[in-house]
């Protein structure tokens, strides 16, 4: 099989490596593609803790494709089933996954890309946010995740206020159903604008989807008394400080909406399958850039640099 191996900071090679065989309780997937996650950017930059070279296909965890081999003791999956999987070497033509980390894709999704992990992540965050019709929801950071959450929140009848740095992202938020958009430029001007839009009450729900200190600070400022602040951004570059006085005074609920339990991840993917198949969620316009496996480096660079018109990269395999 062909697999990407990251050999150093900003460097990779594509190699032919032995095709793995599934063990008991595992399946092998001939991958159709893999989404490129922003969490890859820190390893791609080559921090001190990163070990190179990576394992073949390493860092790729948003894969989907067709099962081409089944190990022993797998009863509900067959060769030919099209699936999304929680697997972790998906920057390759094939990957191995545990049978209980796979979700079948229905015929309604034939021919459509389906990076299950981030779609499932959005569904899990949305569920934990307890968003309901009539609420005001602020979403800080309109990347792929923020755009999905904007669409989900708007479709249940909330008033979404989207805050993001790029004009293109704000345009996406409008298309996803945001009622108001605010450029992420000045901290105090954003607070004043949200206060104005909410009659001085601020928002029932605030989702921070960036993973940096300033958006986290901003999220707390925009959450009303007894409101709920949801941390959806991936904070992977060190400790954070919080304004505990503000959190105490307003009595806000703070939800860390990241999951590590594979079954909860799979629950989110199942919900995403239903939502996309039924039309309740449509991510198709958010896949803005597609690269071959040989172009994985360009895909990672685009995810880092975010050129105009970029939102989400997919690496696809013929």
From TrEMBL:
Q: What PROSITE patterns does the database record attribute to this sequence?
A: ADH_ZINC
Q: What Pfam family is a match, any one?
A: ADH_zinc_N
Residue ranges constituting the Enoyl reductase (ER) domain according to the UniProt record: 8-315
Q: What UniProt keywords are attached to this protein's entry?
A: Metal-binding, Oxidoreductase, Zinc
Q: Which InterPro entries match?
A: ADH-like_C, ADH-like_N, ADH_Zn_CS, ER, GroES-like_sf, NAD(P)-bd_dom_sf, Zn_alcohol_dh
Entry cofactors: Zn(2+)
Per its UniProt record, what Gene3D superfamilies does this chain match? Medium-chain alcohol dehydrogenases, catalytic domain, NAD(P)-binding Rossmann-like Domain
Give the family from UniProt: Belongs to the zinc-containing alcohol dehydrogenase family.
The name under which this protein is listed is Zinc-binding dehydrogenase
- Give the species this sequence originates from: Rhizobium oryzicola
Phylogenetic classification of the source organism: Bacteria, Pseudomonadati, Pseudomonadota, Alphaproteobacteria, Hyphomicrobiales
């Amino acid at each position: 099989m062909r697999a990407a191996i990251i050999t150093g900071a900003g460097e990779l090679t594509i190699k032919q490596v032995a095709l793995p065989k599934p063990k008991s309780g595992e399946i092998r997937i001939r991958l159709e593609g893999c989404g490129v996650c922003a969490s890859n950017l820190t390893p791609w930059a080559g921090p001190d803790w990163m070990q190179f070279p990576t394992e073949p296909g390493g860092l790729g965890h948003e894969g989907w494709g067709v099962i081409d081999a089944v190990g022993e003791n797998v009863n509900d999956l067959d060769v030919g089933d099209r699936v999304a999987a929680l697997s972790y070497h998906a920057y390759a033509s094939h990957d191995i996954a545990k049978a209980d980390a796979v979700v079948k894709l229905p015929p309604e999704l034939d021919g459509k890309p389906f990076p299950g992990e981030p779609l499932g992540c959005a569904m899990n965050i949305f569920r934990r946010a307890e968003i309901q019709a009539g609420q005001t929801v602020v979403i800080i950071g309109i990347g792929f995740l923020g755009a999905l959450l904007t669409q989900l929140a708007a479709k249940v009848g909330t008033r979404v206020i989207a805050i993001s740095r790029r004009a293109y992202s704000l345009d996406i938020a409008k298309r996803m159903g945001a009622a108001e958009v605010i450029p992420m430029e000045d901290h105090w001007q954003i607070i004043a604008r949200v206060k104005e839009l909410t009659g001085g009450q601020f928002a029932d729900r605030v989702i921070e989807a960036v993973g940096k200190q300033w958006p986290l600070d901003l999220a707390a400022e925009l959450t009303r008394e007894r409101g709920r602040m949801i941390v959806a951004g991936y904070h992977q570059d060190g400790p954070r400080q919080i304004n505990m006085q503000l959190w105490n005074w307003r009595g806000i609920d703070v939800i860390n909406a990241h999951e590590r339990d594979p079954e909860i991840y799979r629950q989110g993917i199942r919900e995403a399958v239903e939502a996309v198949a039924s039309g309740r969620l449509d991510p198709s316009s958010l896949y803005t850039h597609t690269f071959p496996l040989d172009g994985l480096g360009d895909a990672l660079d685009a995810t880092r640099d975010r050129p105009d018109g970029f939102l989400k990269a997919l690496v696809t395999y013929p």
